[in-house]
Amino acid sequence: MGDLRYADAGVDIDAGNRAIDLIRKAVGSTHTPSVLGGIGAFSGLFELDVSRWKRPVLVSSTDSVGTKVKVAIATNRHRGIGIDLVNHCVNDILCCGAQPLFFLDYYATGKLVPEQLAELVDGVAAACRDTGCALVGGETAEMPGVYALADYDIAGFIVGAVERDGIVDGSRVEAGDVLLAMPSSGLHTNGYSLVRHIVLTRELDWNAALPGTDAPLADLLLEPHRSYLHAINDLRQSVDVRAMAHITGGGLIENVPRVLPAGLSAVIDRSTWQVPALFSAIERAGGVMQEEMWRTFNMGVGMVIAVPRQQAGAVTSAAGIPVWRIGEVVESTGGERVRLQ
Q1: How far apart are the C-alpha atoms of 213 and 301, rounded to whole Å?
Q2: Is residue 192 part of a domain?
Q3: Distinct helix (H) and strand (E) counts, the chain
Q4: Over the stretch 129-146, which tens digit does the pLDDT of each residue have?
Q5: What residues does the PurM-like N-terminal domain cover (predicted)?
Q6: pLDDT tens digits for 147-164?
Q7: Whole domain around residue 256: which residue ranges?
């Protein structure tokens, strides 16, 4: 009696302290003069630079990377998951024109492995530095009994800002506007439950290439989610961006209508790009219906932008990312919001 320790219940306080020591440098590398205080406080403090803004509106979003973490766990490769987490959130607030200010993460696991957490946070910090976003805090939760010992989940929380008169909300989109596209870097963070089901039922090897692809399956699936921040900022220097749709779960079919005013639809021409080989390989390996592919995956398109027709012709790239004309906005007929042709 009297010898029971928290570690006997599966929670290791010493491991938690070691994890904080391992991530301290990575977190600090994202801090800007706007960050007040350092790691270890009960909250993160961020001073808004009022000289930068006239009438700022704060924009927030939260997301996870879904079951992509299961691929990372199966292959013991975690850094890219941290990048995914930040870039997904950055792209979401970017759709209304917001610039990222600060970020927080939540990591929960059955058994804390400090080195694994450090690898994840290194990815989070790298993406934060690339997008000028300060990592101001987070939470590490060791919860045996809720998560299996080898499992973890991670979620991100972002706050950005946009000028009140600069909000991009799709309200100015009109029939005749052109839809431009930017390519994805792979599956991004959607469709992994279906892919994992195919891998399990077809007994596929993570380290082997699917027919038609040129790299191991794990390499392609763990390719980090692309950030469009720099490309969109570049594009907006010369083009009137009227709406932006981040192509996540639901693909083009579900996400493009979210930024179109009532009464308008999108016509998307699938012949304007070649669907990357990974998507076709998944379709063949799993015997997935084509319609289901287009409702589940981004199919090679990560961002769709609506611009005036007269401005669309000269755009071929932005910040090194290819841009192409994928379709147009038309008056709705019969309630259809997206037509793939």
Answers
A1: 18
A2: yes
A3: 11, 14
A4: 999 999 999 999 999 989
A5: 57-162
A6: 888 899 999 999 999 999
A7: 178-340
